[in-house]
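Repro case for the chain-ordering regression, as requested:
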Amino acid sequence: MEQNDTTTIEMSAMEIHKVAPPPHKTTLQKLKTRLKETFFPDDPLRQFKGQPLKKKLILGAQYVFPILEWGPNYSLKLLKSDIVSGLTIASLAIPQGISYAKLANLPPIVGLYSSFVPPLVYAVLGSSRDLAVGPVSIASLVLGSMLREVVSPTKDPILFLQLAFSSTFFAGLFQASLGFLRLGFIIDFLSKATLIGFMAGAAIIVSLQQLKSLLGITNFTKQMGIIPVLSSVFHRTNEWSWQTILMGFCFLVFLLLTRHISIRKPKLFWISAGAPLLSVIISTLLVFALKAQKHGISVIGELQKGLNPVSWNMLHLHGSYLVLVIKTGIVTGILSLTEGIAVGRTFAALKNYQVDGNKEMIAIGLMNIVGSSTSCYVTTGSKTAVSNIVMAVTIMVTLLFLMPLFKYTPNVILGAIIVTAVIGLIDISAAYQIWKIDKFDFIVLLCAFFGVIFISVQNGLAIAVGISIFKVLLQITRPKTVLLGNIPGTRIYRNLDHYKEALSVPGFLILSIEAPINFANTTYLKERISRWMEEYESGETKKQSELRYVVLDLSAVSAIDTSGISLFKDLRMVLEKKSLELVLVNPIGEVLEKLQRADDTKDMMGPDCLFLTVGEAVASLSTTIKYQIPTHV
Amino acid sequence: MEQNDTTTIEMSAMEIHKVAPPPHKTTLQKLKTRLKETFFPDDPLRQFKGQPLKKKLILGAQYVFPILEWGPNYSLKLLKSDIVSGLTIASLAIPQGISYAKLANLPPIVGLYSSFVPPLVYAVLGSSRDLAVGPVSIASLVLGSMLREVVSPTKDPILFLQLAFSSTFFAGLFQASLGFLRLGFIIDFLSKATLIGFMAGAAIIVSLQQLKSLLGITNFTKQMGIIPVLSSVFHRTNEWSWQTILMGFCFLVFLLLTRHISIRKPKLFWISAGAPLLSVIISTLLVFALKAQKHGISVIGELQKGLNPVSWNMLHLHGSYLVLVIKTGIVTGILSLTEGIAVGRTFAALKNYQVDGNKEMIAIGLMNIVGSSTSCYVTTGSKTAVSNIVMAVTIMVTLLFLMPLFKYTPNVILGAIIVTAVIGLIDISAAYQIWKIDKFDFIVLLCAFFGVIFISVQNGLAIAVGISIFKVLLQITRPKTVLLGNIPGTRIYRNLDHYKEALSVPGFLILSIEAPINFANTTYLKERISRWMEEYESGETKKQSELRYVVLDLSAVSAIDTSGISLFKDLRMVLEKKSLELVLVNPIGEVLEKLQRADDTKDMMGPDCLFLTVGEAVASLSTTIKYQIPTHV
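-- result from build under test --
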């Protein structure tokens, strides 16, 4: 970029610009703007503006059922590619569905049911064509562990299943309500650092649980923490089965290898997608041929043929377990939303289209509500591009005809598949990047990680979210106040600490306040400003001139409340006692308006106390203080 | 103030100032600064700096026991004025102590005990000579109502008393720990609006409770809400006693009248201070003379002579009520701190000395811990200037010799005294001021008020605090982005909406982001910035020039985290697809540093993308876009 020497600005130092009052708005108008920015920041209905009625109706139908938008443009070519990708993903979804259901302490077939109905619902209602829908590891783990704290899945399997469906119902209800009430921003409170730490911790917890099937232990601990699991593993060495370990080890190496290849060469994606199904087939044949189930290798056993049975009569919508299922529903609902929305947004950014997060939430929520009445548990969008319809049809065929084939599938393979799937959740390079940029975020990450591993999955998450919010509140409670100085030859004022060439102006204490001023920080600001004054009194600048003016640059004060207003009143009183003057610079519209409304006597906001820039304030006020800026052309 | 025409600045438009990297600091140094600002913003130990050891020891002793600081300067003249004010306040403290103890469902004498030991402890440890110490209405109400939810004060008075002392112990422990850990800023989260609403609601609840003694009802409801109390009052009209009502009405009018006089003429303060004791004396004499206790006027009854009995053996520090007393202790502890610290600060501001809030909390906390072992319940500093020692001595004399005189004091007088005291907590003019300045703060006020009246005292407070914090979080989740324009003839860029004379610059989209950028708002900011771009595309400015540069003024971005960093990476990617350039202006030190650390390829922070002011960025980049500012001298 070249520099343009033709534009020249000349300014008289004495040209003082008035601070204008903001244009008048009624409380109602302000409320409207505020509500719009809070709940409709993406202005989802703008496409409807100025359209004729018929067009509006069509757009409305397409808005509710996005399938109407892309359906008519569907072509044979698209169908062909969809069939290929759908089959590939189905071959991944079948073994993963079975495995994740086991992770949630549910019968394996529920995992397949959950890969059939929800994708069909999402295909009609969801706005992303690129999102494969099904159960995911984190939500499965959390659902299973939260319910298991109250009900045993082995002693009371029917009740456990009922509670899982009920939780799914409430997860869906919660998700849909969030979207409908446009409160989707709640999931933003799970920061990146929190999620990376949480996912890594959960991946380790999940992997540890798989030691049960990988080592062939029958009496495994019911707890999730790292310590009880490891102690359970090493106190039961007598139960280890070498056949199981050998088989598990071989297939685990095979799966990890294919995963590694696909990461290196993304074009060979189908290798890692097909490997789980291949492992299932080979291991099943092996067990069948060698009658290995009689030599200590546990197998899935009979699976019932047929499509999803109705389950709406199994929902617990009242009674003693209501609090449990609502809590479980909310936690798993938020977790699965986080995953689904994040993946959806990534695809949208890649393919350059917009995703309305709130609308997606409604779609995912309805999908789970329907799912809970058709024997599915919590599902969401996961990582791969796919046609959900083709995938669902493949699952349907499996459910109708292929179920007996799973009878001899060994559980150890499911363990290996889960480990391979969750290992991808441990993102060390992202963690390193966070360490490099922001140490505090890294602490949040560690809290989430160790909280999940040593305390519990839900509490680890809660702790990390708590710390993130606490950090934000702390920033507000302790806002930065920065001492400004003049950059020689300009009217620019910048942080004296940061810009070493900047010079402080004798007689002036120029402070920039860098946060909204509210009840949480007025006390601090008052104390901090009086400390700045004391520091001026004891510093070098004092020798040149006594302090005369305290100039507060309010450019960065984005909001103020009544406590903040009284801060200025108090400050003025304190300064008057010391015969100092308080000068305010560039308050933004809202702040200016409130200051004026509170200033009954009209002496706080006079022309000598209010300026548009620090430069103008200093130039205008430095009459008695000899102050010369070297000219500089 | 005159304007100074001798200072002239001339600037070439092409003088571009480099954005300097901030001076290097290690993570440890940064952490130190951060911790200092968070926990020691008032730098409490600065007076020790550079002093010789002996002086340091003296200062240290004075720091721990402020009495050593003012004690040696104590004079006969001060003693005389202290005796007068001490006697005045004692005459207020005796009837108020008895009344507040009844408000807390405690025996009246506990109120007198609580006005004896705590003032003495505070006189030694506290830093304010102007704070009278004793029980206060709000903490009494909350203590009584929280404990009464679990234990009945009439059926199980000993247990109730034990729980009250235990709660006081934990209140003191909590207060002292807050101060010791320098977490005193927690009480700042009770905003002014919350407190005004809460106080007004509590005053009404307290006054309603007094209907029991004012109307002479014997079977009164145990609940606190406005509805059960009023229904109880009107369903028991048969219990109303006209003698009690007549007496209560007369004294209430008398007390309110004296209060009114003292408000009008603050010099006649002693009138309202003496009125309660006078009422007690007159009414006691009346009852005694007329034998009115036999005509339906209930009286206090025998009070035991003697000083505070030891009560440390009554503390419940374990067992089934532990959770209750800790909870009650924390709530009453915070409430009484809020009152004590606020009053202390007001006096400090009036008399121009500093109050170290955290140190005050330690003093108040120790006072309550000592109090809990000497039959006192929660106390704090309340509104009046006084010598605590003189007051305590007066109470001591009362406890030792005057107790039998209270035998015939009618309860109706205590009710009238409480109503008169709490009516001052309803501050309508402050509420109106808040309504005028900030409608949202007023909503918080109303929530606190109606929450207290219709739900419960604790929940009303919790709701209001929750809403206040939610508002702050909402501000962060939805930060302001403001479109800037050039004020003609200057290099100043200001909000286009606010400054009507400002002009947008064709080819540039200049946005100012006015909040820290973090996980809670990156998604919103991304959506909002792309909406601004769409608005540019469909607006007037586009006709003059295609959009070329998106300029983000980061002056007001006081902090950033890793999610915020990735916002810039994502934005750059999106803009590159549209062949737009992202230009950053004036990031503050911390933000600049993190951006540089994240910018591995060094292409985001090049000299063409980073400027010190918006003016310089526009001047430097507008080579291809014809752009002329009218000169203006």
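Ordering looks correct now. The beta strands of chain A are 132-134, 380-382, 481-486, 493-495, 508-513, 549-553, 581-585, 610-611.
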